[in-house]
Design a protein that fits this description.
Layout: H1 2-24, E1 26-27, H2 28-31, E2 32-34, E3 40-49, H3 61-73, E4 88-97, E5 106-113, E6 124-131, E7 137-144, E8 150-153, E9 158-161, E10 166-175, E11 188-193, H4 198-212, E12 217-219, E13 224-228, H5 237-245, E14 248-249, E15 256-260, E16 265-268, E17 273-274, E18 277-281, E19 284-295, E20 306-317, E21 321-325, H6 331-339, H7 345-358, E22 361-362, E23 364-367
Parallel strand pairs: 15-23
Antiparallel strand pairs: 1-14, 2-11, 3-4, 3-6, 4-5, 5-10, 6-7, 7-10, 8-9, 11-13, 12-13, 15-16, 17-22, 18-21, 19-20
Length: 368
């Protein structure tokens, strides 16, 4: 009984120790993509009709030309000079054709106005061919728009919520042509990780070899891993790919601090480290106010009114606290140390730039 309890205790301790490592692991399917299996972009030009006077104006000539051409193709003869397009809007239709999409399937489309239409609310997209980069039609889109916005108003005031000149049609395009994909014709697969890193590629290759045998995977460069189909999976390409993508790998990355000066956003990776450094930061505010004091002469004194300028200068400097950050500290320690001196996000941007300039920051500083 004592031995069984001791074994159970040791196993529980090992589980606790392993949990932090497994929590950082990520499936291969989440960090890598199989080469050749990808989306394809489609685009088309179309017309949205049924708008309540919020369409393009008569000055948008390409909308008038498109409407007249469409009516003539349908056998209706119209006078171009008498056409009004208040209820019509010219749009660009875009979509992503996923891999293995079959003819007869549906995909979502994005509709965006290219004229001066005020809103696409209540509109219906007419049949629009969607072409690929090769010029072939791969899908045809048509249907009622889902805008998720509103825009109303008059001459004195308007009310707008979200973006009324862009919309979506869920399942609005019908796939007409399939993209040729030679899948399963080769026993060699190439995986590409999303962020190039030699350490991640090496770990991924080692994990696959530990599961399927030595020589199954080999790292090609900092972003690619070549995987050979094991004899046990001969003729079962999909089963092998599914087994590979379920394996877990701990991805690595370069220590990086990303700063967006426009929004005051700072994002730091967990592996950011700095040397021993002292930080002091204080703000200096200088306020200059100009005013004029008027000197008015007495009645019947034949004097002149004189304006005497007065300048008020006020200097305010916040107290700067000196904080010493120890070397090799973690992300949490850096945050606590900088928060101790009351640094705002705008202040942190200047502080990190100064620390990087001093050579104490062991991380890549990216300024957006």
């Amino acid at each position: 009984m004592k031995v069984a309890r001791l074994v159970a205790y040791v196993l529980s301790v090992l589980c606790v120790l392993v949990q932090p490592l497994s929590a950082q692991a990520t499936r291969i399917k989440d960090i890598a993509r199989l080469e050749g299996v990808r989306d394809n972009q489609l685009v088309g030009y179309g017309l949205v009709v049924g708008l309540n006077g919020t369409g393009d104006s008569a000055s948008t000539q390409f909308t008038v030309q498109s409407l007249v051409s469409m009516m003539e193709r349908l056998g209706v003869s119209v006078n171009r000079n008498q056409v009004k397009v208040d209820n019509v809007a010219a749009v660009m239709v875009t979509a992503q054709l996923p891999p293995f999409a079959k003819a007869g399937g549906t995909i979502d489309v994005q509709v965006s106005s290219i004229g001066d239409a005020d809103s696409l609310v209540g509109g219906t997209l007419l049949m629009t061919p969607l072409k690929g980069p090769d010029g072939n039609v791969y899908a045809v889109a048509q249907g009622s728009l889902v805008v998720g916005a509103l825009a109303f108003g008059g001459k004195a005031a308007t009310v707008q919520k979200n973006h009324p000149t862009a919309a979506r049609i869920p399942g609005g395009a019908l796939v007409e042509r399939e993209v040729a994909l030679a899948f399963g014709s080769s026993d060699v697969f190439n995986y590409r990780i999303q962020s190039a890193d030699f350490t991640t590629v090496s770990r991924m290759s080692r994990t696959i070899n530990e599961r399927f045998g030595e020589g199954t995977a080999s790292a090609v460069d900092g972003v690619s891993v070549r995987v050979n189909l094991p004899p046990a999976y001969a003729g079962r390409h999909i089963d092998f790919i599914a087994a590979v993508e379920e394996l877990s790998v701990s991805p690595d990355s370069v220590a990086r601090v990303v700063i967006n000066e426009k929004t005051g956003t700072i994002v730091m990776g967990d592996n950011v480290r700095i040397q021993r450094v002292a930080v002091s930061h204080g703000n200096l505010n200088l306020v200059v106010a100009e005013s004029a004091q008027v000197s008015q002469p007495g009645p019947f004194s034949q004097g002149q009114t004189v304006a005497v300028p007065q300048t008020s200068i006020e200097v305010m400097e916040e107290m700067g606290n000196l904080v010493v950050v120890e070397p090799g500290v973690s992300l949490g320690d850096i945050a606590r140390a900088l928060n101790a001196i009351g640094a705002t996000p705008r202040d942190l941007i200047a502080i990190f730039q100064a620390i990087k300039a001093s050579g104490a920051l062991h991380a890549e500083l990216v300024v957006l």
